[in-house]
Specification:
heterodimer; A: 377 residues; alpha+beta; Cytochrome-c3 Hydrogenase, chain B; three-stranded antiparallel β-sheet; 16 helices; globular; B: alpha+beta; Alpha-Beta Plaits; two-stranded antiparallel ribbon; elongated
Amino acid sequence: MILQKDIERLSAGSNETFVLNLGPQHPATHGVLRVKLTMDGEFITRAEPVPGYIHRMHEKMGENRTWAQFLPNTSRIDYLSAMAYTHAYVAAVERAAKIEVPARAEYIRVITSELNRVSSHLVWFGAFLLDLGGFTPLLYAFDDREKILDLLEGLTGSRLTYCYYRFGGVCNDIDAGFVEGARAFVTYMRPRLLMYRELVTDNVILRKRLIGIGFIDRDMCRRYGASGAVLRGAGVNYDVRRAEPYSVYPQFNFDIPVFPEGDCMARYLVRMEEIAQSLRIIEQALDGLPEGPFLAKGVPRMMKPPAGDYCFAVEAARGRFVVRVVSEGKDIPYRLRLRTPSFSNLSLFEEASRGMMLPDALALMGSLDLVIPDIDR
Amino acid sequence: MNGPLINVWRGFRSLVSGMRITLQQFFKPNVTVQYPHESIKMPERFRGHIIFVRDPDSGKSLCIACKSCAKACPSECIVVDGVKREGEKKKSVTEFKLDFTKCSLCGSCVEVCPADALRFSKEYNLASPTKGEYVEIDLVRRLEADKP
């Protein structure tokens, strides 16, 4: 643990700093994020994130194609939780066009979104521990994730960029095989979580690297608009699924894990607990899966939502994702705004990392769970 | 109590539990597929690049060259053309080219097709030393050559 007096002693001793480029091709930044670090020895005096290396103009692309043609884009903003992102977009358009979604479709959406959340958290888990220097857990995590990807591939035909939801429902119905597979996964995953706990969470080295490192308090979260596990790891009980209930989430019993410590360990524990809660939701949704159509009738092939300004927020794996669509009543949107959680979560890095040692700052960055295309979009 | 001995004991305990889990893994089945020698069968709904569905009666394509797919495509990677032959009710396709370098495999074309003339290929070993091979995938020619 770094003491304040150490920092003062070291920074008082010399006024010499140097600039260290972290990224854009650095394994610890998980993509093309560049952080310009001004270092005083091992300590960071200033960290300046430089996003923009994978900017693809998703918002602008939305303005020159039809409503349905934007659907494939939604999976490519945050490729790890594609389902939730598509959900936000289709739900925003459904709100605009006043389309009633059948109950079965909403259940399927919840099941697939939660499976996707588990797979996203497993990637984060593996990659985060890889940042900290532990290679083995990544292999276990990817083994488990593979089971989810196989399930979703059998359902949607794709492993990552699903593009599965449609305006008014989903494009394929789930069959008995999928339900059975999802149930088997839930029963398989529970003992695995206990194993992770024993192997990783209780490990002395991990605890020493995470406890008391990278404090983010609730004030800082408010100032930067952080959401997701970062916010819940700072002791704020905020989850869009509870705060602004959407889809059929109010019908399920689940807890929002909140840890007040605000350090890397708290964020780690929030996500691990979220996996367990997602499994609970999947189980309940599979039990209560109603019969009926999976796609609403009478949805026009060429959408022309009435003029207006519509918003929809979902809880994606990384936090609050909001889609705002402005319609002029035409076949293409007038404006499509995407509020992505990773961007806000990254912006607090500069303040939170000040005075930290470089390896600790990497632990902090890993615990934010950044997806770079989500920052740049 | 937080003496050095306790720390050593805790470290030793987490080392042993980690090693135990690793050792258990030795007796679990192998999950790796030895790829070039064996490969995984693609699921029924796998989205590869599109190909024509053959009409079981005539052996020709079901495509009616209505160009719905070209309009639905978000990446504008489909070019379709067709003619109306004498004595036939519907148009028949003469040209159907897919620019696979632009395609994002979203499946909008398959979904929108009124004649159900398109389906996904199960081919996934798509690599080529030349770019030209995928800039134009000629679906009509592929159907004639009976490629999968």
